[in-house]
Design brief:
By secondary structure, this protein is of the alpha+beta class. The protein has one domain: 2-Layer Sandwich (Double Stranded RNA Binding Domain), CATH 3.30.160. Helix content is 35%, strand content 16%. It has two helices and three strands. Strand 2 and strand 3 form a beta hairpin. It is flat. The chain starts with 5 loop residues before the first strand and ends with a helix.
Amino acid sequence: MEYTVLVFRAEEGGYWAEVPALPGCYSQGETIEETIKNVKEAVEAHISALKVEERVPTEEDFVIARVNVLKSAVV
C-alpha cells in the first residue's frame, strides 16, 4: 500500500513530513532520506493504531490539487 508524503523544509533546519490521507501522521529528520525513513515508520504505526478503532484511509479519500495564483496576489 502506498501513501503520498509531503516533505517540507523546517525553519529550524532539517525536514518534516505529513501524510495527507492519514490526518495526524507526521515525522521529521535531518535529511530528506531520514525524513522519508521516519515517516514510513510513522505510517506503519499510525495504520496499526487505526486498525484497532476504525478503517484505514486510502489515497482515494482525498485529492491533492495545485492552483496558479498571480504573482501580484503574493506581494
